[in-house]
Amino acid sequence: MTCDLHALCFDAHDPVRLARFWAGVLGWETTGDPRDGVALLPDDDTGFRLRFLPTREQKSGQNPVHFDLKSTSPEEQRETVARALGLGARHIDIGQRPEEGHVVLADPEGNEFCVSEAGNRFLAECGFIGALACDGSQKVGYFWSEALGWPLVWDQDEETAIRSPHGGPKITWGGPPLMPKTGKDRLHFDLAPSPGGDQQAEVDRLISLGATRLDIGQGEVGWVVMADPDGHEFCVLPPR
């Protein structure tokens, strides 16, 4: 039994505005499912939606997860950067070197993302969202491969990557050194039991793989808050 990656969730001070930004960058439409709140549905094989959840907490440090957006040509890279800037993004410096070729930006709430250089072979078979690049250990890459049932497509020098058998973005973990955790992650995964699955059985399975349950003050809610082996939060939703 596995679970499905239902959504990548953004904590946002203004969920509607941030959703509007990412809809403009990605060309996605909002979902009409009231269970998702403010959310965008993919128009390609991405396989998961984006949800935008209200928060009052301030961003603290660099996010451990960011998008790598693919470019098929230098012109497309320039167009993507210009579109994002026009929607409210800004250039940022996180220590990248000019020879690396990708452009590092932040969305209107400071969430980092990259627009890759043309000809990036690692992203060649992926769509516009080429990868979710994560800070994380080799161990956590193995955990997520088992949790989602996605095969490893890279496992070298403690760097790992997985990809759904149905296509879509790769999820990558860069290996050590790991960034210090500075508070609750502003981006997290929402998992849903596979059709016919059971939430508690899924929670128990994830614990057996190395996850832990968390109490972040969520109170009596229908979802279960957990952490992966590196301590990054995710949620297990009730069956949908």
SSE topology:
Layout: E1 3-12, H1 15-26, E2 29-30, E3 38-41, E4 49-54, E5 65-69, H2 74-87, E6 90-91, E7 103-106, E8 112-115, E9 129-134, H3 138-148, E10 152-156, E11 159-163, E12 170-173, E13 187-193, H4 199-209, E14 212-213, E15 224-227, E16 233-236
Parallel strand pairs: 1-4, 5-8, 9-12, 13-16
Antiparallel strand pairs: 1-13, 2-3, 3-4, 5-9, 6-7, 7-8, 10-11, 11-12, 14-15, 15-16
Pfam families: Glyoxalase_6 (PF18029)
InterPro entries: Glyas_Bleomycin-R_OHBP_Dase, Glyoxalase_6, VOC_core
Domain VOC: 125-239
Features:
2,3-Dihydroxybiphenyl 1,2-Dioxygenase, domain 1, 240 residues, single chain, alpha+beta, 8-stranded mixed β-sheet, 16 strands
Care to describe what's here?
- This is VOC domain-containing protein.
- InterPro entries: Glyas_Bleomycin-R_OHBP_Dase (IPR029068), Glyoxalase_6 (IPR041581), VOC_core (IPR037523).
- It comes from Microbispora amethystogenes.
- The chain has one domain: 2,3-Dihydroxybiphenyl 1,2-Dioxygenase, domain 1, CATH 3.10.180.
- It is 20% helix and 31% strand.
- The protein contains 4 helices and 16 strands.
- The strands form 2 sheets. An 8-stranded mixed β-sheet has the order 2-3-4-1-13-16-15-14. Strands 6-7-8-5-9-12-11-10 form an 8-stranded mixed β-sheet, with helices on one face.
- The longest helix is centred in the middle third of the chain and has 14 residues.
- The radius of gyration is 17 Å and the shape is globular.
| Rg over CA atoms | 17 Å
| Strand adjacency order, main sheet | 2-3-4-1-13-16-15-14
Secondary-structure arrangement, i.e. CATH architecture: Roll
Whole-Å distance between the termini?
A: 16 Å
CATH topology: 2,3-Dihydroxybiphenyl 1,2-Dioxygenase, domain 1
Reading off the top of the CATH hierarchy, the class is best stated as Alpha Beta
Give the number of domains.
Answer: 1
The largest sheet is: 8 strands, mixed
Q: How many β-strand stretches? A: 16
* Overall mean confidence score, pLDDT: 95
Order of helices and strands: EHEEEEHEEEEHEEEEHEEE
Helical stretch tally: 4
Q: Strand share of the residues?
A: 25-35%
What percent of the residues sit in helical stretches (DSSP H or I)?
A: 10-25%
Assembly form of the protein? single chain
Shape, please?
globular
List low-confidence stretches.
none
Structural class: alpha+beta
* CATH homolog superfamily: 2,3-Dihydroxybiphenyl 1,2-Dioxygenase, domain 1
